[in-house]
Amino acid sequence: MTDSGRTKGPICGIDNCRSRFYEEGDDGYLYCQNGHRKGELLTQPDDEDFNSAKRTRTRAKKPDDEKEQVRQYFKGTQAFDLYLKSLQLILRHQIRSLVHDLGLPAELETVVLDLWAIRILPLEEKLSEKTHDYDSQSQGFDGSDDEAEIEEEMIRFARWERKLKTSPTLMDCLALCYLGIVTLRLPVTPGDLDSWVTDGKIPYMGAIKRVPLSMRDRLPANYHAVLDPNSLLKLNRFYSTLADLQASLQKEYGIIWPPLNSPLLRFRYIKELALPLEIYAATDRLAGKLGYDLVANPAGKKRRLRGLPEAQLIACLIVCVKIMYPFDGERRYPRTTSEPAVMVIDWDNWHKEISEAKTKADDSGNEYTNKELWNVDEKDVLSMSPSEMDQYMDFYQQNFLDEARLDQEPEGGFQDILYKMFPIHEPSSSQTSAHASDGLGTASSSPTSETAGLAQPEAAPKKKNRKRKKKVQTLGHEGELDVVTAVHKNSTPLRAVTEEELHVARPGQGYRHYEKEEELSKTARQFYEEAARIAGFSMEMVVKAVVFVEKDIRTWIRRRKQASRNNETSGWIRHYRSRPE
Predict the structure, then answer these.
(1) Residue 29 — very low, low, confident or very high, per pLDDT cuts 50/70/90?
(2) Which parts of the sequence are annotated with region: Disordered (predicted)?
(3) Distance, first Cα to last Cα, the chain
(4) Which residue among 122, 188, 367, 560 sits deepest, i.e. has the most Cβ atoms within 10 Å of its Cβ?
(5) 20 and 11 in contact (C-beta within 8 Å)?
């Protein structure tokens, strides 16, 4: 090494550089005379023996109330298992309401629970598969979607062949309850279920409040959406779910569904619609002529509305009424006084008696019905009177406020302060009477009323109000008999017209066909609406069901004429062959 600090070394070689002398740069590398850097880094002992200290970081300790909360809800298979248990708990509440509050036989509980057991049996493999991800994506649920979209997606992608392997929903629970009713052959219609759901007598809207908070808090948001539907029961989706369940259970387990209890249902329709007894036998005879056995056959070709036994029965009854007691008011004279169509119903008086009986039974003094309250929007609120606003606020408190969760709000919290500023009082007696069974207001009648999440009135007034609500919804046996008596008292008989008078309209002539709901006359619409409400169909479904029956009647007539012509032709052939040559 020279005095100038240069070091002699090998030839640089970079860009054919021939320099052999190097100097140490400030960065610790060696550089040749031409500025080319040599690759090695020089290391020398530290004269000051400096060692860098270990870097440490100090954090301020957070208070206990600011600690990061651990995620409480379950995921995957564990969440799906909890969802099934929550749904089963709601199903038990529904069965309890049907048996203990609505008076159905206790055997219904055993039948429905057995159907539930075989419904979830194919899900055993899904629950035991630990590696499968059952989060919101795998279940096909979206927490932002409402229950209607979730149901439509499940029905669209899981037809009846795979129905048992999909996740059950609240609609499945209602369908299982109805299948239990059909199995026991009870005279209960889907219209009754729709009415009970709307009035809150069966848990459906806000059904998640029947689940304890300890279970609710661990359910993911997508399962909350399924257990807390935000719309009333849709009858078309109910029948679709019902048909899928019937087909799946029939295919997988060989279950043969019994026919509807036609005698009791026909008697009930006649009594509630205030119709003559002649309709009873005529409906049965028409169904027999058309080959309707009133048995669910969801695996057949006519799986939808045309094959529903409930639709076939009510449509046959409506067709018989249109033939024997038409709505147009024209006189059609029978040939003898023994014909069923000899009586004429005053349909204006019929509608008047039905409406007055309902108004008389509704002694609650409320302006809105339950279904109207569920469908209230912003425009309706702006035009409400003070009494209507009170009724709606009481309805909102009983159906949308979760007081079980509000009770857990810490003292001095935001919601606690807010509710102290605007305290909520118990509904008035009239409102409680009108809504004693709305939403989940009947939670005190269930075994776990503490999980209902709603403020409960005292026990004694509660029972009294619930009875009053039942009177509001139905006319009762005495009221129905009063309507029947009033309608039949104003019915007038027609005189018999013999065969000689050929220019007289006969019963069945001038039959009116209504292909669409808009074509219905005023009187026909009133009768259709009442029949649809009792049977559990929308107006559109009833009109279509009647059209299907009328088409089947034309097909039956055409086949009968063809058979008659064939018999006549065969007779002539036999006669011709029997002649002597």
Answers:
(1) confident
(2) 42-68, 427-477
(3) 150
(4) 188
(5) yes
DSSP conformation class of 299? T
Is the Cβ–Cβ distance between 108 and 99 less than 8 Å? yes
Q: What is the DSSP letter of 98?
A: I
Q: Show the tokens assigned to 549.
A: 């029956």
Q: In this structure, what are the phi and psi dihedrals at residue 196, rounded to the nearest 5 degrees?
A: -65, -35
| Cα 509 to Cα 318, 327, 493, distances in angstroms | 16, 13, 18
H/E segment holding residue 177: helix 170-183
Cα–Cα distance for residue pair 379/369, rounded to 1 Å:
17
Q: Is 38 helix (H, G, I), strand (E, B) or coil?
A: strand
Contact residues for 414 (Cβ-Cβ < 8 A; gap 6+): none
Instruction: Transcribe 197-264 into DSSP letters.
Output: HHTTSSSBTBGGGGS-HHHHTTS-HHHHHHHS-SSPPPHHHHHHHHHHHHHHHHHHH---PPPP-HHH
Picking from 340, 351, 275, 332, the residue whose alpha carbon sits closest to that of residue 524 is 351
d(C-alpha 131, C-alpha 455), whole Å: 43
Structure-block tokens of residue 281: 């036998």
CB atoms within 10 A of CB 135: 13
* CB within 8 Å of 359: residues ≥ 6 apart: none
- Which residue shows structure tokens 């669409």? 516
The angle that helices 347-361 and 476-489 make with each other, rounded to 10 degrees, is: 160
Calpha distance 419→126 (Å, rounded):
44
What amino acid is encoded at 132 in this protein? H
Domain map of the chain by residue range?
1-44, 73-258, 260-330+510-581, 358-449+461-477
| Alpha carbon distance 541, 535 (integer Å) | 11
Structure-block tokens of residue 219: 């359910």
What are φ and ψ of residue 84, in 5° steps? -65, -40
Q: Which residues fall within 8 angstroms of residue 117, CB to CB, at 6 or more apart?
A: none
CA gap 425, 394 in Å, rounded = 9
pLDDT at 283 over 80: yes
The top-scoring range by mean pLDDT among 68-77, 78-87, 125-134, 183-192 is 183-192
Residue 208 CB coordination number (10 Å): 24
Rounded CA-CA distance 535/547 in Å is 17
Q: C-alpha distances in angstroms, 403 versus 138, 213, 536?
A: 33, 11, 33
Alpha-carbon gap, residue 109 to 540, rounded angstroms? 33
Chain segment 548-569, per-residue pLDDT in tens? 999 999 999 898 888 777 776 6
Q: Which residues pair with 492 in a beta bridge?
A: 344
